[in-house]
Write a structure and sequence with these properties.
Length: 245
């Protein structure tokens, strides 16, 4: 378990340097705001098992954490040596969204963390490999839609439709920064996956890695600063603010 203190942020996010003013906090969705990964992995594992690749939820999570369904499709087609069809991702998204609309829950402390960041006067955006359909279901089920409006949520599915890529490529985070009109150097990302941490690093953004029970060393190796409880996030961001020009 990683216990990151505010003083650790002042040492680790950019040791000895004055950082650009923090202008945007970008949250991942799954595993950071919404405790949706076990649900989504259950549905995907059931689908993969149905089409000939036996798998359970934990194995699915270990293999595909942080990746897009398009990535899952490519890996599965290579494994099974056959195409899954052009509508495979759409069908999976529909199944996952239906489950999320009924069963999604917020990460403990996520509501208070989002409110605290907003109270600091910092803009918030969400950047996720999930589709807008899935995120709408998750946010409505948990009530987070009352805190983060749809126009501040970015989906990798929009980028993929334009021939670009989601995490671990930096495009999604760069799009969020551009939408806010700020430099990537002025952004702080909150992530829980290795793909997300790598995307933040590639975008030139600082990253806090939420690691309640896993992946601390992996996220750290990708440049993220691990922390284990969402309740700690506001103080970590205040520490980042204290180091700005």
């Amino acid at each position: 378990m990683h216990r990151t203190t505010a003083s650790a942020v002042t040492r680790r996010l950019s040791p000895g340097a004055i950082l650009p003013s923090l202008a945007l906090v970008i949250f991942d969705c799954d595993g950071v705001l919404i405790d949706s990964e076990p649900l989504g992995n259950r549905v995907v594992a059931e689908e993969l098992s149905r089409i000939g690749w036996p798998m359970d939820g934990p194995t699915c999570q270990a293999m595909f954490l942080g990746l897009t369904y398009a990535d899952v499709q490519r890996v599965t087609e290579h494994r099974l040596e056959r195409t899954l069809g052009e509508d495979w991702v759409d069908r999976v998204v529909a199944r996952v969204s239906a489950v999320m609309a009924r069963e999604a829950t917020a990460i403990p402390g996520a509501f208070d963390a989002v409110k605290a960041v907003a109270a600091m006067g910092l803009p918030i955006r969400v950047a996720s490999n999930s589709s807008h359909e899935e995120m709408a279901a998750k946010f409505a089920c948990t009530g987070l839609d009352r805190l983060i409006p749809r126009q501040r949520i970015h989906s990798a599915h929009d980028l993929i439709a334009r021939g670009r890529r989601g995490k671990p490529d930096p495009d999604l985070f760069l799009e969020a920064a551009a939408a806010e009109g700020v430099s990537p150097l002025a952004c702080l990302v909150v992530e829980d996956s290795l793909a997300g941490a790598r995307a933040a690093a590639a975008a030139g953004m600082s990253c806090l890695g939420f690691t309640p029970d896993r992946h601390g060393p992996d996220l750290e190796s990708a440049g993220a600063l691990p922390f284990s409880a969402m309740a700690a996030l506001p103080d970590l961001i205040r520490a980042r603010l204290d180091r700005t020009a």
